[in-house]
Structures are given as C-alpha cells and as structure tokens.
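Why this split exists: single-chain examples teach little about how molecules sit against one another. For that reason, every record in the complexes split bundles all components of an assembly together and asks for one structure covering all of them. Below is a record exactly as it appears in the raw files.
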Amino acid sequence: MSNPTATKTAITPRREEDFPEWYQQVVRAAELAEPSDVRGCMVIRPWGYGIWENMQRDLDAMFRATGHRNAYFPLFIPLSYFAKEAEHVEGFAKECAVVTHSRLEVGADGKMKPASPLNEPLVVRPTSETIIGASYAKWVQSYRDLPILINQWANVVRWEMRPRLFLRTTEFLWQEGHTVHETEAEAREEAQRMLDVYETFVRDHCAIPVFAGEKSESERFPGAVETLSIEAMAQDRKAIQAGTSHFLGQNFARASGIQFQTRDGKQEFGWTTSWGMTTRMVGTVVMTHGDDDGVILPPRIAPTQIVILPIAPKEESRAQVLEACDKLAAQLRANKYVDLAIDVEIDKRDLGGGAKNWEWIKKGVPLRVELGPRDLENNSVTVSRRDQSVKTKESMSTQEFVARAPELLMSIQQSLYERAKKFRDDNTRKIESKKEFYDFFTPKNSAKPEIHGGFALAHWNGSREVEEQIKNDLKVTIRVIPRGDAEAGKCIFTGEPSARRVVWAKSY
Amino acid sequence: MSNPTATKTAITPRREEDFPEWYQQVVRAAELAEPSDVRGCMVIRPWGYGIWENMQRDLDAMFRATGHRNAYFPLFIPLSYFAKEAEHVEGFAKECAVVTHSRLEVGADGKMKPASPLNEPLVVRPTSETIIGASYAKWVQSYRDLPILINQWANVVRWEMRPRLFLRTTEFLWQEGHTVHETEAEAREEAQRMLDVYETFVRDHCAIPVFAGEKSESERFPGAVETLSIEAMAQDRKAIQAGTSHFLGQNFARASGIQFQTRDGKQEFGWTTSWGMTTRMVGTVVMTHGDDDGVILPPRIAPTQIVILPIAPKEESRAQVLEACDKLAAQLRANKYVDLAIDVEIDKRDLGGGAKNWEWIKKGVPLRVELGPRDLENNSVTVSRRDQSVKTKESMSTQEFVARAPELLMSIQQSLYERAKKFRDDNTRKIESKKEFYDFFTPKNSAKPEIHGGFALAHWNGSREVEEQIKNDLKVTIRVIPRGDAEAGKCIFTGEPSARRVVWAKSY
C-alpha cells in the first residue's frame, strides 16, 4: 500500500491506517449508504442502489439464460413451517424478527401500542426455503412437473448485533434461487452451475477474482447437504463470502412434503437446491477496488460510466461550454457499443470545479471528462481515468474521445481485474507447516493492527477439531475446499494424509 | 356480455354469472398467483410476476425520464416515527404488522417461541413517508439540496381481513415515489406530473382508459393535503383505483423535521409528495381485458408476446417440425422492432396440441402460432390472435408472419384499448337526478346480482354528508373530481350549486 508520508487523500483514514474505518468513510463519502435509526438496517442511497440495480440486471440475464424465471413468495413465514427442518430453525433462531400483532391501538398512557395478538407468530423471512417449499409441495405431483427453476428478488431479515454497511445488515436485499429436480445428480449439477454463474458474474462484471469450492461441514448452510461458495479478498487480506449455492438433498423436500411420482410409478421426495447473492456484493466491490480517494467502480456495474464536468470560470463562456457538453453527451449516448451500457451524466451544478471533481472521484465514476473554454477552442476534452492517479489527465480531441470511450472503459474494467488478481495472488501463499501458518496469521506488532495474512493454501486432515482449534487460536477458518485437480499431501497440523490443499483465511 | 347459451368456455363460471368467482378462477387458471397459508399473502407465480416485471421496467424508465432515481429504505419503522403524523398513524393503525421480538427459543413445551422482546416495537412499513422522512431530514439543509426526487421499489404490508388476489393483499409489491421541493407550486406540479405518468403508462402500456382527478376529502391518503387518482373500470362496471399521487403540503416535513435554508436565508419546511402504483395493476389488467376463456394480455406487458406450438402428430415429423419452430423463433427474435420488446417461447412439452393451446389461451399470450407437417410443406404458419375468437385462425407464409409480427402485436395492443374504452364509455353516464342515480346503481333483480351501474357523472355540492349518505345507501363513492374544463350545474341530491360533475361508482 501507499507511502504513509504521501500527500493528503480524499478519505481519512487511509486504508493502511485503519481499514474498517476507511471502509465506513468511503461508503459515506461516496453516498452509497448510511445507517438508519432502525438497529442494523441501512439506507441504500441512489448511487449505491444504482450499483445494485446493475448487478441485478446482469445477474438476472444470466439466470434467465440458464432457464430460471422469477416469482415472489410471502415475506412472512408461519412459525410452524419454519420449524419443520430442525437444523434450519436452529441455525436461524437467534436472529429472527418475529411479528406477533396485527394492529396498533392507543394505550392507557395515550401512546400507540401493539394490539390484536396473532394466533401463530410470523417470522420475517431470513431465507425462504420453508415458505417456498410449501408452494412447491402443491405444484409438484409428477416427474413431468420437474425441474422447477425459480428465482426471487427480495428483502430478508437476520437480526444483526454487529452491523456493517452492506457487509452485515439486519435487513438486506438479495436473490434466492430455489429449484427442485428429479434426481440427485441433476440437483448437484444445478448447485454447481449456479456457483459457476456467480463466479463468472463476479469476475466479468465486478472485476473480482475468487476462490470457488465447497464449505467444510461446520460452515454449511443450516439444513444443507453441501454448501458451495465463492470467496473474494478485501484489501485488508480478509476473505469475503460473495455468493453461496446449496445442494439440499431431500432434507427440505421431506420437511415440506415435495413429493412426486417417478417415471416408474413410485413416490419420491424431490432433490432441491438454493443459491443466493446479496447487497453484500456492493461492499465487496468497495473493499476490493477502492483506494485512499474513495470508491473505484468497474464500468460494467457503475450507475454512470462517464461524467462530464463543464468548466466555466467566466459567465460569458458558460452557455457555450454547457452546449458543447450537451452535444458531447448526445454523441456518447448514441455510440451504441453492443456489449456495454454507457450512461453519461453532466454535472451542471453551480459548485467549484475542484469540489465537483472530488465528489466524482470519491464516487468512483470510471471516466471524468472536463470541458472548458480552452477545450472548446481546441475542440478537445481532458480525460481522467479513475483507475489512474487523480493527477493523471489526458487531453484528446472530442472526436477521438467519442470513438475511444468504449475501449477506455473496457480497459478500466480489465485493469481493475488485473490489479485485484495481482493483489489476491501476492497475498495467497502455499503454507507447509503449522509454525509458518501461525506466523502468517499473526500481526507482527500487536499494538498496531497492521495488515497481515491473506489466503493460506494448506493441507488439512478433514477434522472438525483442527478447524475449531485454528478458529479459536487465530480467528481463521476454512473458506473453501476447492474442486478439480488435487495435489495430495499431509495435514500441516496433524501430519495425517490430506487429499488436497484447502483455502484458509480470516473473514468478514 | 356474451350469450348465456354459448358453447362451453375455458373458465367457469362466466363473467356474467359470477364476476368475483370468474376473477379468482382466471387468476388461478392462468397461473398468475394463488393464496398462501399466510393470511392475506399471495404467491405470485412466474407468469404473473413476469407481467409485474414488465410493468416495473416500463414505469421505471418513465420515472428516470422525469429525473427520479431509485433508492432503498428500511422495511421496519420505529413505532415512535410512525406515530409522528397523527392522521397518518390513525389511518394505518388498524392494519399494521408489528415486530415485537428478535429471537426464537425453545419453550417449556419443546416448541419454538418468540424471545428477546424489543425495547421499541417496529411496524412493518405499510408505506414509507415517515422512515424516508427521517433520512431526508438529514440530507436537506439548504434550497440547494432540493428537489429530492427518489423512488423505491418495495414490499409493503397492510393487514387485510378480506383479501383478494392482486387487488387486496396483506403484503403487496409497489413503487413509492417520495419527493421534497422548495415551493408549494413545485410540489403540486410534481404530484400532477406523476399522475400524468401513471395515466400514460396505464393507457399506452396496459391498454386501459382511466378517469383522472382529485379525491374528495374523505378518500384522501392519511396525512395528505390532496390525493390525485386514476380510476379504471372492471368488466363488472366497478371502479379500480389504479394509482395515486399525493401532495402532502408541509405535514410530513413538519413531522420529520425536513427543514431548509431558503434563498433569502430563512428556515422553512420542505414541500413533499408521494405517489404509488402496486401489483394491484396486474389484477386491473385481468379485470379489464379478460374474457370467458381466461386472461388477455396487452403485448407491451405480456411476459411472452408469441408462443410457437409445434404440432407433430407423428414421430417421424417431430424433429423437422421442432427445427422449423427453432428457426422461426430465431427469426422473430432477430426482428428488432425498436418500440416493442418481443419475447418468443416454443412450447415443446409432450402434451396434446389441444391442451397446450388452451393453456396459452388461458394465460393470455397475444399471438399463438401453430406449426405442423402441413405448414412445413407450405412454408406457412397458422396464427391466432388472443383478442379474437379462439376459433379464428389465419394461415400465412412464414416470411409474411415474421415481417408482420410487430404490426399484429401493435394491432392487438390497439384493439384491446379500443374495446376497453368502448366498454368504459358505454357504461359511463351523465346523470341528472337523484332518482336516476339510485336507479343506475340498484340491481334490477336483487336475487340475481346481475351486472348494473358503471361510472355516473353527476353534479355534487361538495358536502361530506351527501357523500356519506350515498355510500351508506348504495356503496357508491366519488372516485375522482376531474380537473380541467368544468361545466357548472346543480347538485342532483340537494339542488345546490356545483362547479363540475364528479365521477361516482362502486369500487374495489
């Protein structure tokens, strides 16, 4: 990271000084989101919500292309439904918002109070396996009704004691896919397919490399047979779980009664999956790409790809400059680049040019274009890329800029990915001994919580006891057990045989 | 409506036999939605949700074009916030879902029970004026921060004792716009602008004519100074409120503390508006356009505009027919008609051709295209329009169909609007006396709740007492007080002067 004696940055503190506080400040400065007075619930402001809308648009197209359709199921889950799958209810019981009344009335003290208690309390969905399962049980009669391939965009609530904007909030937005299949093999294939969709989306749209694989038993979704996950790396070298896909076996089908007549006339329970990605992804983008001047957005998911900043120090040139800006915006918008939506904004506000420029730097818009009286004379513009130093500016003819804008944006998309990949790779290490492992994950100077650690690729004997020991000692967990080619070896903690290296890290 | 001795229809009962039951059956048969086990909450199935997604897409583009951006605010409202505006809390108190606990634990009887009571109960938002107001109070300091033009797509909850799919459900989906302005005039203009957006959307996208205007005081949104509304007519001649836009004056700004420094340095409360359209619109489309064979969808909002039905009675022609269907679909999809998204589906399921055809009739897909071995030989297709009799089919060359598909779809869009307009106009009557009014709204034979009434355009003296009398006697209310040109006259109930005719009807 950068030199501590560097010039003043737009965000205080800098990342290396206090990463968690830097994150909070960046999210606020870019007007992505802010806490609300409702414990753990955030307000997602237009700039932050615009990023989420683009993520939705792109993910939704990928879900459709893999045969899924959207639907909507109730927000409330009757407590009796929710309790049907024992592991599931146990996993979520500590964080459930519970509706117990359906009316307000004026109390003896003149204040409004809950009235009309419900016969059965309702759980505000923390996830929808059980409420969706109740519908699927009605819809599925025969193998001919399968597969069911449905996704839902929704809000969910998991009571959160230590909230952090986007990363961990009591209410969050997500999509949850819920599918039913005729065979175990098909359901396992679906769970893997959707993990691949997530990996592709995060790589190609969010410019973030991930490790993908299976979770160990202790980190599984409550009620799942197998949980798959993708894990990104923040700039403090901690892991962020960015998307999960679960093979649920017949557990939830049994709990909900999703049963079908097989091809040979028998009754069998369906094989189900579920998979989700959340507004946490917005925080992951900030933590991966942001710098000491604010957010840096990959062009594919930025709410605006290009901002035009009119520079008109004198009143007499103002109209002319604004007209040129309008013309430039129209040319850029007409430039139909097939593979990338280009949205252009002109910031006509009557603020100082410097103040405006810094706002857009903090918001992370990929390209900033200044246009002033001198540019007008030369028929040129001054272009700044957010992935380069804030001082780097390039002057080019308007014509050239219009022609090259798509290419510049794709180049930013690419450079962000490469930078993130290099950072991730530089901080991923094959580790061969317990001592080396403990060293890797221990800060050198405990007074200063300086940056340390990363992803450790190390052999493990598969035992839960080892995992718990490491978690207690270092707050480090197994993030994923990668699939595919494996190199056998010996567990660095016990010396026992290990089929493959697994990925360890501290995490959000 | 149609002849009672007509041939059997796909939906039983027919509209004229029992309109409410016909509606329930159509919604189920088209797989739009179904009740859930959670009182008053519905499951919106993919075909119904697809309609809502298209409505969202089109409305959202109109909101953006008028300068609005989307954001997201908490689902939960602290009770103290909610109670800040007295009329508002009173208006919603009877239908609030209240969260009182944040955890579940195992009770003495071994069953899960709510645990960890909250210090302050949380209301699940029935609408978001108060929670959004709390954010706006922080964001607005000066006239320079205005206007704030934000929309939210969200779920809301209003406890419902007599639910009806789409029209009245405990949980529903909607958009709610919330804006703050510097002056009263600007806020009033905004409220009217968004009503105009709704009117345009409902006319041009949903093919439904409406009456637009102001609500009388008794029908206003709780806390509003003025409520504007658009009112559609169902085929039982009742009104359906299809969208509302409220001028809130400074009421909510005062309650939330949205205050700003004016241009001349004073402190003033902001002028706010809110406006919303809901999933009720899906039900409105069904009630306006549906017939005794099911739903009829306007092409602009149909999830699929064209369904291709392969007819392959013999195994040997099957592969060839399917190949031709794939080719046709590809040609139709490549046909980029600028102003209309065309989605094509091929129904390859191994069911009888008749069964498949009827499924798509009930779902209301605008164009059905049959393609069988004989069509293959002739290089032709057999086309059915959903706005025509199910028996009307036209054979045309494949090439002609590909070229004409957009025009056929636009023709269906147009014919649906004209049919709905004619029905609405035929059942809208200027009424000049109290007797005529009571006759108009009284069934001729009370044993048979036959279709009667419609929209009555009648003069009214502006008094609340008259409104209440009419409501008690006939269940008829003033739907809107139209704006624009007025013809003065005398109240048909009291003989007192009236500035204009108002629109009366029974309503959903």
